[in-house]
Amino acid sequence: MTKDEKEVHVMTLLSDCYEDTQRGKKRVRTRQTYSVNGKLVCKSAFMASMDISNYTLKTLRKHKRSNETFAGVHGNTVRRQPHSTVYKDVLRVVSFIRNFSDEYGLPKLAAMRGDNALPVVFLLDQNYKSACEEQNVRSL
Fold first, then answer.
1. 133 vs 54: which has the higher pLDDT
2. How would you class 18 by CB atoms within 10 Å of its CB: exposed for 0-12, middle for 13-18, buried for 19 or more?
3. Which of 24, 30, 93, 114 could pair with 16 in a Cys bridge, judged by C-beta atoms 3.0 to 4.6 Å apart?
């Protein structure tokens, strides 16, 4: 099962036990019962059989109490991290390496071997960061 399918399956297996107290009042806190194949088991056996952690179980219980039966969505699914790489940046780095290797690269003098038909070029430079600063672009 995928992660979302497994979480929905675990939420369907969870059941809250609302028992009345001895005085006839409704319980404020619910008691959780865990069952595997129709048999009641302890919490650790349930987590082991479902292959989930204590934190995941706690999150799924909280999610079920909010009466939502769909899988939860991670909070960072929409936001892009500020340090993440953009495809345009990757293309810029690849073009820089190709252009630089054409100008300043040292070709390997040994004969080509095997199926590799691409020539090997050694790059001896540390000027990428200064080149990015001159162009006012982000260096990776």
1. 54
2. exposed
3. 30
